[in-house]
Amino acid sequence: MLIIKKYIPLAIVTIVGLLTLATYYVPAKASSAYLSTLNQWEVIVSGFAFLLGLISLLMTHYKKIAKRVDGWGYSLFVFIGFFAVVIPGIISHGAQAKDGVLTSLGWAFRYLYNPLAATMFAVLAFYIVSTAFRSFRIKSVQAFVLFIAAFILILGNVPAGQMLWDAMLGWTGICGIGDIIQWIMQVPSVAAKRGIMIGITIGAAVTSLKIIFGIERQYMGRD
Amino acid sequence: MENSMSIILGGWLSAGLTIFLFSFLYKDNPLFKIAEHLYLGVGMGWWFIVLLYGTWIPKAYEPFMQGEYVLIIPVLLGLSLVTQFIPRISWISRYGFTFIMGYGAGLVLPLNLATDFMAQIAGTIKPFSQLASMSWGAIINSFLIAIGAVCVLAYFYFSVEHKGIVKKASNIGIYFLMIYFGASFGNTVMARFSLLYGRFDLLYDFSGASYAFATPIIIILTVGFFALKHFMDKKKNSGAAQP
Amino acid sequence: MKDKLRRFLRIDRRWIFLLLTAVMVWPIIHPFGLSGKTSQQSVRDFYDFVEKLKPGQAVILGTDYDPSTKPELHPQAVAALRHLFSKDVRVLILTFISGAPGMIEELNQTVPAEYGKEYGKDYVIMPYNPNYMAAMTQMSIDIYKAYDKDAEGNDVRGMPVMAGIKTYKDIAGVIEITGTGMLDAWVAYAGDKYGVPIIGGTTAISQLGFGPYLQNKQIRGLVGGMRGASEYETLISKPGKATSGIDALNMAHLLVILLILSSNLILLVIKEK
Amino acid sequence: MKKTELLLVFFSFLFLWPGLSFALNGKSNIALPLIEDAIAEDMPYDSGGDILLRWPADEDDEGVVYEIYAKTESSENEWKLADSFKAFEKTADKMRMPFWAWSHGSDEYAVKIPIKSVDGDADIGTVLCFKIKAFRDGKPIAESAILCASSDDNWFNLPRLNGLLMVILITAAFFMTMSRAKKKGLFIRRIAGLDAIDEAIGRATEMGKPIYYSTGINGMSSVNTIASLSILGEVSKKVAEYDSIIKVPHYDPIVMSVAKETVKQSYIEAGRPDSYHDDANFFLSSDQFSYAASLDGMIEREKPAACFFMGYFLAESLLLTEVGASAGAIQIAATDSESQLPFFFTSCDYTLIGEELYAAGAYLSKEPMLLSVLKLQDFGKLFMMLSVLIGGIAIALAAVFHCDGFVKGLLDFFTNY
Questions:
Q1: What is the ipTM of this complex?
Q2: Which of A213, C261, D289, D330 has an alpha carbon 20 to 30 Å from B33's alpha carbon atom?
Q3: pTM, 2 dp
Q4: Where are the domains of chain A?
Q5: Residue C219, domain extent
């Protein structure tokens, strides 16, 4: 039983991992055929992972409604929202437009999903302003450097800021704000990003190895 | 005619949901809660449709019907994931998980090392081979990039105590990080305001006669709702205060 | 005085929200018409890349954004598509983001008509594909393995737009417009691996992160954020949403700077006296 | 005997051909000089899509234009123009190849012809024939013999040897560290934000309010999520000890099922299996912003004493932390998503930057395996630092002394083919 429960899955991860890794170095036809089959398979398998989430979400809210817990009425809206997209989706076979005319799914996307997603994202603008006022504190030299870089970028990103800069510092004849931004983006930012990126990449590589060789297996749960 | 009706309706729905979500900025309220829960359902419903018509039908069902019977393997692997819900046989899901994990790890490893590790080293040292043909500014910049990257790495060096030269280097590294974060913050401000502008612009569009004045009417109703609620809460409170 | 300032520092943040709303709505109703005069090198590189394409060449236009990043990225996609069509380049529109098909539909309904372009002959829209790694890898072997049907389920093999296209070698470049990691993915899976030129459009926030790729020429040109979009619109002389949006952004940006400075100044005053 | 015969036939054919083709094409007079030593062969190290043509480059080629004509061996069709370029434009040194896989230099032309460009149905094994023509001022001045070859798929992409060596190196180092993992504890530098975890949990206990812990919006196979879960293990152990309440909202269902195990195990290890509730972990949404909207709603309503945001975050970072801040929670964030770090930085009480997230699990648990992996990562960084410092100096010196071979070699080693 242990073989089926533990060793075969571990063998799958190692074999699939190593073979997939090898395709990067093997240009032969067999290798690309393998990769393209696996690509196709992976799309299917990971598609099913979504079902896990969907089922948990619907179960949670179904329970809330069934038990009439406080605020269960809101849970009804989860179902309303879900079916408001799924039913039109099935009616219009997943197409958002047919012959240039919006289908019911297209309509649901444009007037239901779209405003919800975009508004939530837009709320961030308000939070940036309040962060700017409440918590952007220049308490140390480091914070000051952060502020200066942010200040230059904020100013230089809009024409009004550029004009302001030119009006106030243009007479000194030093470089325009655009040049400074360019420099910040191409020199210190590149250096910092590279440093972070390399650290992260090594971390990711080591984790990949841990996964491939079955050392990292939290995802398998306990025996 | 029917078509324009659906557009007006859409405008109202869209403007309404936008305003409901924004109302959270004032305070948590039932209108926001409705929009929030609706969004949970809509989001998952959207993904469901996308996967159904983007993956399951065209990539699994149709080819299978046309005789690609091997596709039963990924389908079974996929279905195995769902056994998570039944604790007694949840171990079956390991087959699906291990497949996804193995594939992901194997694909990512060589690519990451090549693109984000080796190529970055090359990018850092390459300018030094052309020192002769570069301006002073460019030379200084390439030195700064190289030194900056090394110092940032020093900051992330965990297994030695940060004192002496390591401390110095990592302190310099922090300044590079701060410039990067600041610049990143500054740049993002732009992005977020662009989004907000997009929303406001749309609400403005919906306030016209062609959308039957959706925006102003909904705003007035929402404000009315808050006023009413405020008034009622006050009444309730004052009522409770007097035994 | 100090007390007043202190209280001002703890002001209910909802007043700030209201201030921002006022500052942004005002230019929407009364635009002042300030538009960017300068343009960044990476935007010009992007422009030059498209400008140098020859009629009949094919490019992939990846539009991987959804409603959430639409205000920034949609103007970029519109401008890029206009530019491509004006050069009579064939365009294959792809996406790996679930929210994008709706955006593509909007592009489809507006831009091609301006240039009298025909679906299937001058451009084609591929269906959403959730697995970018797989699709990008497959396209190096055989595009039709990844996309044999278009978004509406028609066979793409017979379409004139696909004539002579089999792998990346038949593609003049990839233009990826996204706020996600998809541009990195194109660089890693197509650009570096198979030598396809990659240019990109991205949100202002992600723009900085592409510095190393730009420096290494792993990305040949980049349009960043609404500002980049308005510059690009200016370059192709087609002012659009991005150009008009810059006004509202101007005000909001100045407000942020003002807020950071004022709160810190107040802190300074309170502490020192 | 046979060999000479064959050679004879071959040579006579070679000489006959130009004449023959003229006769067939009915074209004019003089036979053009031959482009000698031209070779058509399978393009090495590829998947069989290209054929490589090589021929020597002459110093007096200036002003010459080369055209390459191609057709399938079997077809009756006309020759098709496959490529055309000016002299010295496509010499072999311009082929993107590292020195260990490619020895041809600038004294040779090297042109890759995709087989599909000759014939759309061509595949591995299809024999294609080529003819190279040289023109000066629009007039033909030389021509090659007909060169035929078929492409083949190769079993090793030699130009990527450097990458493979790197993978082998890191794997070897990995196994070495793994086998030594059980030895004594390793030093790890202090990570500032982590000391605040106790304070945050203590505060939550005092106030009798819950703690929210978000594992970010990435899947199970990514480092950030794995790192986050190992921190979650330590945090929930402390939560169990203090008898506080932890709530873990999820974005990814697979991560959720793993996190359930993690939290449960922590409660058991802390000796309080009875206080564990299965609904500590719950699923919200796989849609980025509906996840954020929902979590925001919860934070606003429950006013938690502490919020932990550990893992991969995108734009929702500030959406979550601003609401957390206005709800009065102590907030500790850790992410390797650099674009979000500035926001965590300004709106949270403590922020772990980039790789500190990966190190945090090791720092908290002091588990030998995690610590030694951290050590391995440090070696990787050391490799990078030394490569940049030594490589930078070496390459600058080499360039000064015109050791071009060394410069190219070094850069080749770090280039991604």
A1: 0.82
A2: D330
A3: 0.83
A4: 1-61, 70-136
A5: 41-245
